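$ run holo --ligand "NDP" --emit tokens
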Amino acid sequence: MTVLVNPKALSDQKPRDFKMLIDGQWVGSAESSALIERVAPSHGVVVSRYQSGSKVDAERAIAAARRAFDTGPWPRMTAAERSAVLLKAADLIAERSEELAYLDAIEAGKPIAQVRGEIAGSVDIWRYAAALARDLHGESYNTLGDVTLGVVLREAIGVVSIITPWNFPFLIVGQKLPFALAAGCTAVVKPSEMTSGSTIVLGEILLEAGVPAGVVNIVTGTGPEVGALLTSHPEVDMISFTGSTGVGKLTMTNAAQTLKKVSLELGGKNPQIVFPDADLDAFIDAAVFGAYFNAGECCNAGSRLILHKSIASDVVARIAELAKSVKVGDPLDSTTQVGAIITPQHLDKIAGYVAGAKRAGAEVAHGGETLDLGMGQFMAPTILSHVTPAMAVAREEVFGPVLSVLTFDTTAEAIEIANSIDYGLSAGVWSRDFDTCLTIGRRVRAGTVWMNTFMDGASELPFGGYKQSGLGRELGRHAVEDYTETKTLNMHIGSRTGWWMPRG
Ligand code: NDP
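-- output --
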């Protein structure tokens, strides 16, 4: 079922103007008065205007972050003090959650009810990071003999560049920034040029919460201009990047010139492997949710179903039936389940994948077409059956509401298909048999494997990819440690003998 978007909902509103945050000040670009205009993908009207930041702006932001790290109070505070600021930030995020949800909904085309859940999830992550801040510690070795004591310190790594994509604008910055801040780092954040609004509001929140000037800087602008500088500048110590695998590789290449630490969360083409003994009612719902949540513009999308041959045709028919009831339309309608596609160009790319799959022999079991809802750009929830492992739609990230169905006979074949691509972000297995679930769970090469569920998450559980899905892990109890260096203090007790003398 689909609904029309309400063309009047946004057309009467003036676009919201945003500045950049550099060294505690709200500023325009030093070089350009040009603005980046964001057109709502659901309504086709300009809803936000951001500063078109330049390399000079990025340099100023890096210099501010460097100063704040080298001489400012933030890294020198007690963890308890930093934790209190992060907790205050979490409270303020909760207070402004409706404003934040609205911004992500109109800028990214995401259903408002879904974004409300993402903001609530972010509040939990900020609180979790605040708790971890106080538990950050090193190690001591009192076992090295009478004259030696070893202490391993954990020190904040320094200035971190944080680069985020458009699909979960507020959630993803929240998987990075609070952990960097908990460790005592300072940061320059570059949000996607299409969805910068909620990140800029986060800047307001952080200042109000007590984050000192220069600790968090937000520079808007394009990837090749601002992003590239943030990944190559010698004064940056670490990069935390979420985005496409292509730009992730570029980031690593840039970082290699000055050997920065790099954390990468990249693409996925995640399989759900389904056995005949599975709870199929639960799975059908999870298949539809996994494929169409966030219009499939989700690194964790369950975009590849690998079904046992004996159940494939029945399962495809049931998913197609449920897909008919998915509500596509106005992101501001709180009953909408699938919103708009991020840009017209991206819609063309998704439609191109569907056309290519049909040419290669896949069949459309449901959807397959773009939707004309009177404004913006939308795609019908789509199921492609008779997909083979060699097809592009089975191997590449479509990043749209397109589900590809493949089949298997044996467990070994299912594992081989699952592991046959370059990505390894997440996977799902459905079976009532414990051995089957554990075998798949251990053999599939992915950072997360869901068993009899899909796309559940918690702040405590690490998230990240194998293979070309990324490097490093976010969330979980070690997330703060990722933003630290270790330093060894090797201490001698008493008088020391010369190097030619036996040590005692
Ligand atoms: P991109 O890689 O195109 O962009 C991500 C960010 O990188 C944006 O802020 C972008 O800037 C910036 N960027 C672009 N070019 C450069 C460059 N040369 N140097 C430095 N930064 C640059 O990804 P998308 O925004 O299109 O996001 C979708 C992708 O993100 C998908 O592939 C998806 O799988 C992945 N993703 C991964 C997640 C994970 O955790 N594994 C989670 C969510 C998404 P701008 O676009 O503003 O110019």
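-- notes --
The mean pLDDT is 96.
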